[in-house]
Specification:
- By secondary structure, the chain is of the alpha+beta class.
- The chain has 2 domains: 171 residues, TATA-Binding Protein; 186 residues, Phosphorylase Kinase, domain 1 (2-Layer Sandwich), CATH 3.30.200.
- It is 25% helix and 22% strand.
- It has 10 helices and 16 strands.
- A 7-stranded antiparallel beta sheet has the order 2-3-4-5-1-6-7.
- It is globular.
- It starts with 9 loop residues before the first helix and ends in a 12-residue tail after the last strand.
């Protein structure tokens, strides 16, 4: 049984006053009544977080420490106010690596949100963001100010960079939004500038809003130094015998920039992409839509910096058979999952993802009927013929979907798709083998 009161060694792991050279984030969830079994379930979920260790436990709280990142989290549930307070501390020098603090905070937030969706989806929960300026004051027993989740979301959507503690517009109370709510502004994801993206036309409609076809401008990847050295040594060996080390090699000679061809190759490439734009005009479901959008983006990136995820949408459908590749969009860097290029915040929240030109499997199976068909009405759809959808193609599609699902299930922790259906399976024109990727509209 856990003790009712916090143990005596709590202050050893979580000093009452924020230590010097540390920074603190916070999030608060307030319920209208006591949620039965909530904190017990939350405690179990925290014990399953990746690379975290529980340090101290009591009946209404716990302290966690990241095994890899230098950060500590404190979770406390107040049975009198029916509120859960999450606080994460990190050394100030690590703020330059926003993936660190945002990662633990995001894992805890996602654990709470998943719990609410599964067990308490009918409960109206108030979400608040703790003011990091109050924590930096380092005053004992100071009750921090809390911003509403909506006003932080409004600020992020408007492209604002700062807010003010207690809404007092003073330079001394200025707080950066990325240090207040890094998860809302996607501080640990690749953010694409508006100038690097050219929107072309609408190609579909998703659960969050419209999907556009666009062109993404990206710099060419530089060659690695060792590859350039190997090329130069091979060139010398062809000219003057075996390669030898030259201590007088000029640094410029090994510079990737100076090793490019003299033909003035363009330093950028243009990638066709799909852009999924979040529509938040509906005030009633605005926060819910944004949280779904946010979850999808983070699942695509997953829990480690080298993983990328995706959610793809394409309404262009094309028939023809065995060269098709399926994409069931989902989350990570895998041949059977669609790739996420990055996030856009301005002018609107957008996911920039790999373009699947063939569209989804639903459109392939039920193509729109042409005007020449008798009894044609707008939106009327037919059924693909057996000749255009042979059993070989069906089995290839099923195999690729199974590979993508198996990969998601093999992760630690495993990812459950929860919406595997034909509109979320995308097909692209590619030589065999067929490639699938998972998506969630």
């Amino acid at each position: 049984m856990l003790p009712v009161e916090p143990p005596d060694d709590v202050q050893d792991h979580w000093p009452p006053v924020l230590p010097a050279d540390w920074f603190e984030f916070g999030r608060k969830y307030t319920f209208p009544f006591m949620p039965h079994g909530f904190f017990g379930r939350m405690l179990v979920r925290c014990l399953h977080l990746i690379e975290t260790t529980g340090l101290v436990f009591w009946r209404s709280g716990l302290i966690l420490k990241s095994q890899q990142l230098e950060q500590v989290a404190n979770l406390q549930f107040d049975p009198e106010t029916y509120s859960l307070l999450i606080r994460v501390r990190i050394p100030t020098p690590n703020l330059v690596r926003m993936s660190g603090p945002a990662m633990l905070l995001r894992q805890l937030i996602e654990a709470v949100e998943t719990l609410l969706d599964c067990y308490y989806h009918r409960v109206s929960v108030t979400r608040l963001v703790m003011c990091s300026h109050c924590a930096q004051l380092r005053v004992p027993n100071l009750v921090p100010f809390f911003f509403t989740y909506s006003e932080c979301l409004d600020l992020a959507e408007a492209g604002g960079a700062y807010c003010f503690c207690q809404h007092i517009r003073s330079p001394s109370r200025c707080v950066r939004i990325d240090l207040l709510a890094p998860d809302i502004v996607f501080a640990d994801l690749s953010v694409i500038n508006e100038s690097d993206l050219t929107i072309q036309h609408v190609i579909g409609q998703g659960g969050f809003g419209q999907i556009f076809q666009a062109v993404l401008r990206r710099p060419k990847r530089k060659r690695k130094i060792r590859d350039i050295i190997r090329e130069k040594l091979n060139l010398r060996s062809r000219k003057s015998g075996p390669p030898r080390e030259d201590p007088d090699t000029d640094e410029d000679e090994l510079d990737p920039e100076s090793s490019t061809d003299a033909t003035n190759e363009p330093q950028f490439i243009e990638l066709p992409v799909a852009v999924k734009e979040l529509k938040t005009s509906d005030v009633g479901s605005r926060e819910n839509k944004f949280r779904d959008f946010q979850t999808e983006a983070y699942i695509m990136r997953y829990l480690t910096p080298h993983h990328c995820v995706t959610h793809i949408i394409d309404a262009t459908t094309s028939p023809q058979c065995l060269c098709l590749c399926v994409c069931v969009c989902s989350c990570l860097n895998h041949p059977n999952l669609v790739k996420l290029h990055g996030i856009m915040i301005k002018p609107r929240f957008r996911l920039v993802i790999e373009l699947v030109v063939r569209g989804d499997l639903s459109n392939l199976l039920h193509p729109p009927l042409g005007r020449q068909v008798s009894g044609w009405l707008p939106g009327t759809r037919g059924t693909i013929s057996k000749e255009d959808f042979p059993w070989r193609l069906r089995l290839l599609i099923a195999l690729d979907v199974a590979r993508g699902m198996r990969y998601l299930a093999s992760l630690n922790p495993p990812i459950v798709h929860r919406d595997l259906r034909s509109p979320n399976i995308f097909v692209r024109h590619s030589p065999p083998p067929v490639v699938s990727a998972l998506t969630d509209r």
